[in-house]
Amino acid sequence: MNINLLLSLILSISVSMTTVLADKNMMIGSKGLPKDVNRVIKVKMYDNYYEPKNFDVKSGETIKFEVENLGGLVHEFNIGNAMMHKKHQPEMQRMVDNEILFADTLDREKMKKMSKMDKAMGHSHSNSVLLQPKEKQVLIWKFENAMDLEIACNVPGHYEVGMIATVNIKY
Asked: Which residue in 71, 77, 104, 145 has a CA-CA distance of 20 to 30 Å to 24?
């Protein structure tokens, strides 16, 4: 067999497997549109837990989450799966290391500047909000093609102490 053909075949199989695995792991839904909202869920974030701590959604449903941080620490409301949270946690640690994220505040000006060099430092993800104490924000999410989801806070140490909520998707 021609070596170039063999290498081409190996590369093709590798890319296909990566795509299959990435698609399976990224089945979290998508950013929703305000005009498609089916209902509103008010979410309260306290120091290391959410209320409610379980979310029941229907497959295909678009939810408007009104998220409020009532704790004394910075918290994140992030829709993803366990693998995505694990991959996001080092980004959050870099925000601490770069003195953007502190226990009870964010340096949003520095965040904006740093994001020009490293997009992750801007924390501008459609599936997530990062809030200082007493802040509120809305996140609209469409639960299509979603599976194995959890809502979690990836501020260093918070996921580890259990700041995770379950998402039950009804099909």
From this structure: 77
